[in-house]
Fold these 4 entries.
Entry 1:
Amino acid sequence: MRPGYFLLIVLLLSLQSGFSQSLSNRYSEFFTIGVAITPRSTTTDEAKLIVSQFNSVTAENAMKMGPVHPQEDQYNWAGPDSIVAFAQSSGMKVRGHTLVWHNQTPAWIFKDANGQEVNKEILLKRLKEHITTVVTRYRGKIYAWDVVNEAISDNPNEYLRNSNWLKICGPEYINLAFQWAHDADPDAILFYNDYNETDPVKREKIYRLISELKSQGVPVSGLGLQAHWNIYHPSAAQIDSALQLYSKLNVNLQVTELDLSVYPSGPDSTFKPGTIPAEFTPQQEQKQIEKYREIFAIFRKYKKQITSITFWNISDRRSWLDNFPVRGRKNYPLLFDKDLKPKRAFDAVMNFQ
Ligand code: 9MR
């Protein structure tokens, strides 16, 4: 073989293996692969990992109402603008998160100048102004918005969460939020986004909400499944049944906040801060590898319905699950370790027929 050809083949092979080491390339025929980031991560060693492994980003906090709109007449654009600019310069998509939520709301929004609770009319006017301003600013740059986040109750006997939004406005705030987001950017895909989405009771409520909104002509076009799961739960069967149910809704399904905690959910009586080092044990690692393999096999099975999978945080260097719900306890929920190197679970996600 002529040396020139040989070199060309070596170059092509190494390029190909470089590509196949990236999540977004490996999954290009299945889904967009996203990650939740902070403005700071676009300026550290994490930036290279984000660009090489993912093709979509979500602002972990920077676009939420509290951070972006802390006073009635003040918007903080620096953080969200930097995330959008970073994504655009790297050819990545942006999912917007989130327009209406019961958490991370600015205190001013529910109160008048005398500190009294505002009425429905004023609150809806404020919500409309917020949604219109934020969505218009990023029109054409943010392709999907989590419009309403976590509005359903976890209490089996209650349908909608008894948040300030519901108490003051009634359920109408949900319909209006979607309508206002749609008016501001008719091309954006608009999501209802929630967690505990595989729970047999909650999944019926989620199904009901989307069905009702659709039958009322509300422009909801997607369902976001947060997927804050752990290495024990939910089972493959539970995930599969939930996806089967949601597939009947005929909306875009996206996994929006995926991570696999290495602990069972809830309080942890075995953990004593300072006494037990919360290390990543070989048993946890093995279970996590198997669980990641299992859930991605299920996601691939639903490739017609699922359009994107977003991880909630970049690597085990920092996750919202460090210290939550157990203070002082470190967690290891992601596919990259604290040195940003792929974990063995990464191979389990990448290697399939
Ligand atoms: O990861 C976010 C964390 O940094 C914030 O402190 C927290 C505030 O409640 O929100 C976290 O993100 C949440 C997301 O916006 C909505 N679904 C649940 C996520 C984890 O709590």
Note: The longest strand covers residues 252-261.
Entry 2:
Amino acid sequence: MTKLKYKNARLLSIVIPCYNEETVIEETIKQLKTLKAELKNFDFELIFVDDGSHDRTREILKNHAAKDRCMKIIGFARNFGHQVAVTAGIDAAQGDAVVLIDADLQDPPSVVKEMVVKWLEGYDVVYGTRLERQGESKFKLATARSFYRLLNYLSDVPIPLDTGDFRLMSRPVVETLKAMPERDRFLRGMVSWVGFRQVAVPYVRAERFAGITKYPLRKMLRLAIDGIVSFSAKPLKISVGFGLFSASFAMLGIIYALTLRIFTNVWIEGWTALMIAVLFLGGVQLICVGILGEYIGRIYREVKQRPLYVVQEYLGFDQIKPQMSRSPVTQIKQL
Ligand code: UDP
Ligand code: MG
């Protein structure tokens, strides 16, 4: 039998980022409570991070939290994005293991039971790998598929394919993540970077329970760029490749034009060739400057040293110690 490394573990923290989820949140709370009832040997803390919702999400959460002491709420002062919301939850979590799960029930809470089993066997990170994704558009499926593969090709740390943020992490991994201060966060990559013993649990990604995706194309692209740029300097090297390629192309053109002019009576006329060359080179240069800009923008954001998020209110917590928050405001409000 496998040695149970976390035999004495008691508290499980579940972190649920929510942004305008009024249509699903009641059902999510219900299903998480069912999970809690099924895992009787553990204490639970359900940390809902309200990422500046404009709808009734926070109000619904507050109503439920007033009745149930295991529910805690972190209310952001505005929308900071999914990755940052999850980070705030991880920071405040006190559990021996922390589980990240989406609010829209696309990650089935029942899979958490399998994750816990693996954790008890001694794994430090148990991540959900998507076997199948139901109810997603062809476009999202195709882009997600190519993104994970491109990312893996570019990244310096191997990042598991078709894996989102649905995962369980042990306390040592959580503490390591908390020590990582970067502002552009691509959590699944950061967790891979941490190391320890990691294992996958395959699952079928369900359709969104209700409501619409909060990840429009713009945010998806942002996340993809974050993933690539935060985990690799290869784009910079590729831009050198672009430069070399276009320069050698131009070289060939020059040799060709000179040969014609010197050894024959014909020569290349007109501005078409010229324009093409200018546009091509201009394009390549702009792309390379853009790539460079991505990295410089990141350095700029880092040196500003702004807090990663601002919490308007903590609800349901007993206390917020300094190591539990990166927000300048950490007041606990009563429910
Ligand atoms: N989310 C968030 N802040 C955002 C966008 C999304 O906290 O700015 C949450 C959202 O409420 C959900 C999770 O992140 O719990 C995943 O978002 P969504 O389901 O919209 O993304 P998709 O599954 O379509 O990629
Ligand atoms: Mg979703």
Note: The chain is about 45% helix and 15% strand.
Entry 3:
Amino acid sequence: MSLTHSNLTVAKFGGTSVANHEAMSRCARLILDNPEIRLVVVSASAGVTNFLVKLGNEQLSANEREYVLQQIRNIENSILNDLGRPAEVEQIIDELLVQLAETANQPDVLTSSKLKDEILSFGERMSSVLFAEVMNQVAADNISVAFDGRQVLKTDSSFGKAEPQVEATKQQAESLLSPLLEDKIVITQGFIGQDNFGNTTTLGRGGSDYSAALFAEAVDAFALQIWTDVPGIYTTDPRITDKARPIPEISFDEAAEMAIFGAKILHPATLIPAIRSGVKVFVGSSIEPEAGGTWISKTVDHRPAYRAVALRNDQTLITVKSPEMLHATGFLARVFAILAKHKLSVDLITTSEISVALTIDNPPNTPMAELTDACIQDLSGFCDVKVESDLALVAVIGNHVEYDDEEGGSGRIFSTVTDDQLRLICHGASKHNVCFLVKQGHAKDIVRDLHDDLFSA
Ligand code: ADP
Ligand code: ASP
Ligand code: MG
């Protein structure tokens, strides 16, 4: 097979696409039908990363830990059994499962973010080995090889949310990956990387999309395909309303806003490398590839007033208030310095003369920093602090949504969502979104109503 840089395609398969042997075989056939796909990035099999998070984050008894480990073994072994337990692959998976148990049993797991990332890496390390074997069995040929992507994807040491080192990653890809791609279909892991000291790092939950885009940039790919469980990006999460419609074509900036504001279909950082390298991105369903999907590119013919409604759960609202803030300088800087010290990044912010309200993401099943008592204590040192949780962020993504006019804009949005449902509004800072906080319990209904109103033809 000859590889030309004009058509090299990187394909990423998410957790449900590699959940079991049947799903993996479907993906293998998809790859074999598309000879331009040479580099494949896989997630952990569905469910595995959630179990791994438990091992690193929860105080478990020895029995409970063993139970979680057994759930993971069951998922991996079922794929291994369906493959006929080829000796070489069986040995690798057995070794990885033993190493995982050893790591999870270390006494400082709960306090070491380095160990947590090591634990999290096992899902992708196992699925990539199993997937390469599925490829070879489906092709009845030794066309595929599993490759340890940590040799290429270099990051800093921010465990749990590592930042990629783009130049180092490119150099490693050039020397280690590109030669392999000449005659093999290479299967590598999403989500994981390696810092300069040889430690395993992870890019944050859902990070395989981001890895795939980084790999695509590093090998100078022509296209990146993200294969998941829905045929493309929809006007809202199709699980919320059956009126959600697929979007055939969307611009980088609109899709990036959707990802940032919670459309789980793409990790929020996925489009950064894609925009940098100009690689076109396709999103489709590995279950029904013939159903088409969404192309994301720099320019699109059509830029509608409303593009999509996104929902992000698990928001925490912090309101800090100081009478001294009136005409005082440096108050915001002090607040932000404390949040930065506690590694919390702020999403929305609104201010009045004596108070500031800001939101932070507080998702479950992640090893990321949460709002801690220590942070609240630091803030309380110079202002009143109020914390509210069980909130969700709803964002309407579109073009020129900052204006309130007849055809589009925010007026129509706020005629559907009533004042008593709103906790906070951010409007005007971006021409691509209007967003607001609502009670989490009401969020899906609000998104459904808003979507059905904005997108009813
Ligand atoms: P994968 O494991 O393949 O990465 P994810 O579960 O992370 O898949 O993302 C796919 C899911 O994203 C879909 O099943 C869907 O429920 C959800 N989703 C949220 N917003 C959207 C949207 N606007 N369009 C399509 N899917 C969306
Ligand atoms: N396996 C990781 C997760 O579940 C990364 C990914 O699937 O994108 O978050
Ligand atoms: Mg995902």
Note: Residues 14-15, 43-44, 49, 123, 190-191, 205-208 surround aspartic acid (ligand 2) (CB under 6 Å).
Entry 4:
Amino acid sequence: MEVKYAVIPCAGHGTRFLPITKGVPKEMCPIVDKPTLDYIVEECLDAGITDIVLIVSEGKEDIKKYYDLDPEYEEELRKNGKGQYADLIHKIATKAKFHYVTQYELLGLGHAVLQAKTVVGDNNFVVCCGDDICTYNGKSPVSQLVDSFIKNGGHTVVGGQTVEHKNIVKYGAMNVESKVDDRTYKLKGIVEKPKLEEAPSDLASLGKRVFNSKIFDELEHTPRGAGGEIQLTDAIAMLMKKEPVYFYDFVGKRYDCGDKLGYLTAIIDVALSRDEFREGLLEHIKSILK
Ligand code: UTP
């Protein structure tokens, strides 16, 4: 049993991030010197993923351009004695096999994932939202989820964490049937964006899941749900009637980069984690706090 594919839906409008998303996909907004999306791709590669399936829509051409080989530009850089930059951009284009699938109608996350069926086929796969990054020491959250998927016999694993009770209303909340171990729970349901008093737990789904190919059958039969969209959560609920579905509480710090404040905190934390910026940035922060 192996997981070699990652599907990253990047087709959304990014309304919460207007006005920049009118001209630039939010997945391409930089965190220091790399697009948000590339942190997600790297996290997947850290988990042994070899094939990245990017679900895109019209206006997201910059994504493909970023991952395409550009031999002319590389040659120009090398001619000008800037070989290290040529190596850098060459590595970006060759670090994985990139596949692109267009979602012509934006009918929701479930619909976006279904578009990947033609590439993924019968293989197991990870789904990571294109605007959700994690920082981590040690194993990447995707890698932890893949381990859990294999340990649980190749059944769906929804990744997430415990959030502050007042915040559970923003996420899918887990309805737990039983606790399997310290970090793993068997589920009996997921309540999408519950009212505070109706939340079954504070365990929140946070943008990463691992599936076997059976989820495609469910997605093909999932009626339009909340907001008239085909919801991935609804397909998982249908799958749950046929086979076990688990939740894994991953270790790592997660940032919602589709939200302006989440994006800003990600930039600060990533910059502080880099030696070349840490001291200067800390000095600046201290001077503001004074
Ligand atoms: P979001 O709901 O956060 O993205 O979906 P959005 O629709 O772009 O955001 P807002 O609400 O308008 O600001 C999570 C991920 O799923 C993708 C998005 O691109 C994002 O990475 N997505 C969403 C699709 O690929 N297709 C869709 O139809 C919906």
Note: Residues 3-258 form a domain with the Spore Coat Polysaccharide Biosynthesis Protein SpsA; Chain A fold (CATH 3.90.550.10).
